[in-house]
Amino acid sequence: MRNRAKAIRLIGVANELLAMARELEIGESRAVLLDHPAANGEASEEARTRACQDHPIWVELARQNYDDRRRRTKIFRSEELFGEPAWDILLDLFIAAKERRRVSVTSACIGSAVPSTTALRWITILEKQGLLVREADPADARRVYVKLSARGYAAMLEYFSSASRSVVLLDDTAKASIGHR
User: Fold this and answer.
1) What's the whole-number mean pLDDT along residues 103-109?
2) Which of 61, 68, 116, 157 gets the highest tally of CB atoms within 10 A of its CB?
Protein backbone atom coordinates (compact mmCIF):
# COMPACT_ATOMS: atom_id res chain seq x y z
CA MET A 1 0.00 0.00 0.00
CA ARG A 2 2.82 2.39 0.88
CA ASN A 3 4.58 1.74 -2.45
CA ARG A 4 1.35 2.43 -4.33
CA ALA A 5 0.96 5.81 -2.62
CA LYS A 6 4.57 6.67 -3.46
CA ALA A 7 4.04 5.59 -7.06
CA ILE A 8 0.92 7.75 -7.36
CA ARG A 9 2.78 10.72 -5.90
CA LEU A 10 5.71 10.13 -8.27
CA ILE A 11 3.36 9.99 -11.26
CA GLY A 12 1.86 13.31 -10.18
CA VAL A 13 5.31 14.89 -9.95
CA ALA A 14 6.24 13.45 -13.35
CA ASN A 15 3.09 14.92 -14.88
CA GLU A 16 3.91 18.31 -13.39
CA LEU A 17 7.42 18.09 -14.85
CA LEU A 18 6.00 17.21 -18.26
CA ALA A 19 3.66 20.20 -18.10
CA MET A 20 6.54 22.49 -17.13
CA ALA A 21 8.71 21.12 -19.94
CA ARG A 22 5.87 21.70 -22.41
CA GLU A 23 5.52 25.31 -21.25
CA LEU A 24 9.26 25.81 -21.73
CA GLU A 25 9.06 24.26 -25.18
CA ILE A 26 6.14 26.51 -26.11
CA GLY A 27 8.26 29.47 -25.02
CA GLU A 28 11.02 28.23 -27.32
CA SER A 29 8.53 27.86 -30.16
CA ARG A 30 7.73 31.54 -29.89
CA ALA A 31 11.44 32.33 -30.22
CA VAL A 32 11.69 29.98 -33.22
CA LEU A 33 8.73 31.74 -34.79
CA LEU A 34 10.50 35.08 -34.53
CA ASP A 35 13.38 33.58 -36.54
CA HIS A 36 10.96 32.45 -39.27
CA PRO A 37 11.53 34.28 -42.61
CA ALA A 38 7.94 35.55 -42.67
CA ALA A 39 8.58 37.27 -39.35
CA ASN A 40 11.78 38.99 -40.49
CA GLY A 41 10.82 42.00 -42.49
CA GLU A 42 8.33 40.23 -44.77
CA ALA A 43 5.49 40.73 -42.30
CA SER A 44 4.42 43.78 -40.38
CA GLU A 45 5.27 44.23 -36.71
CA GLU A 46 1.59 43.67 -35.91
CA ALA A 47 1.58 40.34 -37.78
CA ARG A 48 4.71 39.19 -35.94
CA THR A 49 3.22 40.11 -32.58
CA ARG A 50 -0.06 38.40 -33.42
CA ALA A 51 1.73 35.25 -34.64
CA CYS A 52 3.73 35.00 -31.43
CA GLN A 53 0.71 35.19 -29.19
CA ASP A 54 -1.30 32.12 -28.45
CA HIS A 55 -5.06 32.47 -28.55
CA PRO A 56 -7.55 30.10 -26.93
CA ILE A 57 -9.75 30.07 -30.01
CA TRP A 58 -7.06 28.36 -32.12
CA VAL A 59 -7.51 24.98 -30.46
CA GLU A 60 -11.25 25.25 -31.11
CA LEU A 61 -10.57 26.06 -34.76
CA ALA A 62 -8.22 23.07 -34.93
CA ARG A 63 -10.93 20.83 -33.46
CA GLN A 64 -13.50 22.17 -35.94
CA ASN A 65 -11.07 21.66 -38.80
CA TYR A 66 -10.42 18.06 -37.72
CA ASP A 67 -14.15 17.37 -37.24
CA ASP A 68 -14.98 18.97 -40.61
CA ARG A 69 -12.52 16.61 -42.28
CA ARG A 70 -14.19 13.57 -40.69
CA ARG A 71 -17.65 14.90 -41.60
CA ARG A 72 -16.72 15.31 -45.29
CA THR A 73 -15.69 11.67 -45.48
CA LYS A 74 -18.92 10.59 -43.79
CA ILE A 75 -21.22 12.74 -45.95
CA PHE A 76 -19.56 11.90 -49.25
CA ARG A 77 -19.15 8.26 -48.20
CA SER A 78 -15.63 8.07 -49.50
CA GLU A 79 -12.32 7.95 -47.67
CA GLU A 80 -10.40 8.33 -50.95
CA LEU A 81 -11.62 11.83 -51.80
CA PHE A 82 -10.29 13.84 -48.89
CA GLY A 83 -7.07 12.23 -47.68
CA GLU A 84 -4.44 14.47 -46.17
CA PRO A 85 -2.90 12.43 -43.37
CA ALA A 86 -0.02 14.81 -42.61
CA TRP A 87 -2.47 17.62 -41.85
CA ASP A 88 -4.67 15.31 -39.76
CA ILE A 89 -1.62 14.27 -37.73
CA LEU A 90 -0.53 17.88 -37.21
CA LEU A 91 -4.06 18.89 -36.16
CA ASP A 92 -4.28 15.97 -33.75
CA LEU A 93 -0.91 16.78 -32.21
CA PHE A 94 -1.72 20.50 -31.94
CA ILE A 95 -4.97 19.72 -30.13
CA ALA A 96 -3.14 17.26 -27.87
CA ALA A 97 -0.49 19.88 -27.05
CA LYS A 98 -3.17 22.39 -26.11
CA GLU A 99 -4.89 19.75 -23.95
CA ARG A 100 -1.54 18.68 -22.47
CA ARG A 101 -2.04 15.05 -23.37
CA ARG A 102 0.35 12.59 -24.91
CA VAL A 103 -0.29 10.87 -28.23
CA SER A 104 1.14 7.46 -28.98
CA VAL A 105 2.28 6.61 -32.50
CA THR A 106 -0.60 4.12 -32.66
CA SER A 107 -3.12 6.82 -31.71
CA ALA A 108 -1.64 9.24 -34.26
CA CYS A 109 -2.01 6.55 -36.93
CA ILE A 110 -5.66 6.03 -36.02
CA GLY A 111 -6.28 9.78 -35.94
CA SER A 112 -4.90 10.20 -39.44
CA ALA A 113 -7.73 8.03 -40.84
CA VAL A 114 -5.43 6.16 -43.23
CA PRO A 115 -3.80 2.72 -43.09
CA SER A 116 -1.06 2.43 -40.45
CA THR A 117 1.70 2.05 -43.04
CA THR A 118 0.65 5.31 -44.70
CA ALA A 119 0.40 7.11 -41.36
CA LEU A 120 3.81 5.83 -40.27
CA ARG A 121 5.33 7.06 -43.54
CA TRP A 122 3.83 10.53 -42.91
CA ILE A 123 5.04 10.54 -39.30
CA THR A 124 8.55 9.84 -40.59
CA ILE A 125 8.27 12.64 -43.16
CA LEU A 126 6.98 15.10 -40.54
CA GLU A 127 9.82 14.08 -38.24
CA LYS A 128 12.42 14.61 -41.00
CA GLN A 129 10.88 18.04 -41.67
CA GLY A 130 11.41 18.87 -37.99
CA LEU A 131 7.69 19.30 -37.31
CA LEU A 132 7.30 16.49 -34.80
CA VAL A 133 9.44 14.42 -32.50
CA ARG A 134 9.16 10.90 -31.18
CA GLU A 135 9.65 10.12 -27.50
CA ALA A 136 10.06 6.67 -25.99
CA ASP A 137 7.78 5.81 -23.08
CA PRO A 138 10.14 5.26 -20.12
CA ALA A 139 7.57 3.00 -18.46
CA ASP A 140 6.93 0.79 -21.51
CA ALA A 141 9.67 0.21 -24.08
CA ARG A 142 7.06 -0.93 -26.61
CA ARG A 143 5.30 2.45 -26.70
CA VAL A 144 6.50 5.56 -28.49
CA TYR A 145 4.84 8.96 -28.27
CA VAL A 146 4.83 11.71 -30.88
CA LYS A 147 4.39 15.42 -30.31
CA LEU A 148 4.86 18.63 -32.21
CA SER A 149 8.39 19.94 -32.08
CA ALA A 150 8.91 23.56 -31.10
CA ARG A 151 9.11 24.34 -34.83
CA GLY A 152 5.92 22.37 -35.54
CA TYR A 153 4.04 24.10 -32.72
CA ALA A 154 5.23 27.49 -33.94
CA ALA A 155 4.11 26.66 -37.48
CA MET A 156 0.65 25.66 -36.23
CA LEU A 157 0.44 28.91 -34.24
CA GLU A 158 1.43 30.84 -37.34
CA TYR A 159 -1.13 28.97 -39.44
CA PHE A 160 -4.02 29.56 -37.05
CA SER A 161 -2.91 33.12 -36.42
CA SER A 162 -3.03 33.96 -40.11
CA ALA A 163 -6.07 31.78 -40.88
CA SER A 164 -8.13 33.18 -38.03
CA ARG A 165 -6.97 36.78 -37.88
CA SER A 166 -10.44 38.18 -38.55
CA VAL A 167 -12.00 35.91 -35.91
CA VAL A 168 -9.39 36.87 -33.34
CA LEU A 169 -9.69 40.56 -34.20
CA LEU A 170 -13.48 40.33 -33.83
CA ASP A 171 -13.05 38.54 -30.51
CA ASP A 172 -10.58 41.18 -29.27
CA THR A 173 -12.92 43.97 -30.45
CA ALA A 174 -15.85 42.39 -28.63
CA LYS A 175 -13.81 42.12 -25.42
CA ALA A 176 -12.73 45.76 -25.76
CA SER A 177 -16.31 46.95 -26.24
CA ILE A 178 -17.48 44.97 -23.19
CA GLY A 179 -14.68 46.50 -21.15
CA HIS A 180 -15.72 50.05 -22.13
CA ARG A 181 -19.31 49.66 -20.94
Assistant:
1) 94
2) 157
